[in-house]
């Protein structure tokens, strides 16, 4: 029988790290490419994560992008929210800006999370907090490399921020912690698995994380759509939220 990992944070980190290595192994096999590679990576990694969580935390709920949802999780206080490969386009293109998300929502709050960046490689986790890099003279706003939102562009222009295009949501959120960006503003549509783990890690590092109207991020909902997100340093949050409201 598998040894039970008592710490939820340690379990999240091991799951994310191992899942990332599995995805890299699938990619590095060289047997498939493009969209087929993304589909295969998602499927294989999801199978591992679902089975590992069931073995380690059989009483907890699970919500995964790659598994059929069931109403059973709605009655659970503790729900693991996972994205096996966040940024399948970037993964399939063999870029580095993709991620693996393993988050744990407790009472609807993003309490514990680990985000693996296998292309770096690095695992950022909610229980191991590092100091944020100094704020640069010119702020940087990380945006989608394929479909940056009009509101993000407008806010960036208003505050004189440089746009930094990047792939997956997890990579963009972790860019703020890693010192590659200062603000991540998104309004183009996401789901709970896109931002639960990143939000948990960001909050643990002392960052601001909320909806773009300033309301809290709430997880394990019947409707898993969570379409907008702001992750940034706390000193920038009020200004950005005000500008978003004005742009409207």
Characterise this structure.
The chain has 248 residues and is an alpha/beta fold. Helices cover 39% and strands 22% of the residues. It has helices at 8-28, 34-56, 88-92, 150-159, 169-178, 192-204, 234-247, and strands spanning 61-64, 78-86, 99-106, 109-117, 122-125, 140-144, 162-166, 183-186, 208-210, 229-232. The model has no long low-confidence stretch (mean pLDDT 95).
Number of domains: 2
Written as H for each helix and E for each strand, in order along the chain, the element string is HHEEHEEEEHEHEHEEH
Net shape: globular
As a percent range, the share of helical residues equals 25-40%
Q: Mean of residue pLDDT?
A: 95
Order of strands, widest sheet: 1-2-3-4-5
CATH topology of the largest domain: Fructose-1,6-Bisphosphatase, Chain A, domain 1
| N- and C-termini, Cα separation | 54 Å
Task: Tell me the CATH superfamily of the largest domain.
Answer: Fructose-1,6-Bisphosphatase, subunit A, domain 1
Number of helices: 7
Number of strands: 10
Strand content of the residues, in percent? 15-25%
**What is the CATH C level class of the largest domain, in words?**
Alpha Beta
Binding site for Mg(2+): 65, 83, 86, 194
Cofactor: Mg(2+)
Keywords: Magnesium, Metal-binding
GO molecular function: 3'(2'),5'-bisphosphate nucleotidase activity; metal ion binding
List the helices and strands and how they pair.
Elements: H1 8-28, H2 34-56, E1 61-64, E2 78-86, H3 88-92, E3 99-106, E4 109-117, E5 122-125, E6 140-144, H4 150-159, E7 162-166, H5 169-178, E8 183-186, H6 192-204, E9 208-210, E10 229-232, H7 234-247
Helix pairs in contact: 1-2, 4-7, 5-6
Binding site for Mg(2+): 65, 83, 86, 194
InterPro entries: CysQ/Inositol_MonoPase (IPR050725), Inositol_monophosphatase-like (IPR000760)
Cofactor: Mg(2+)
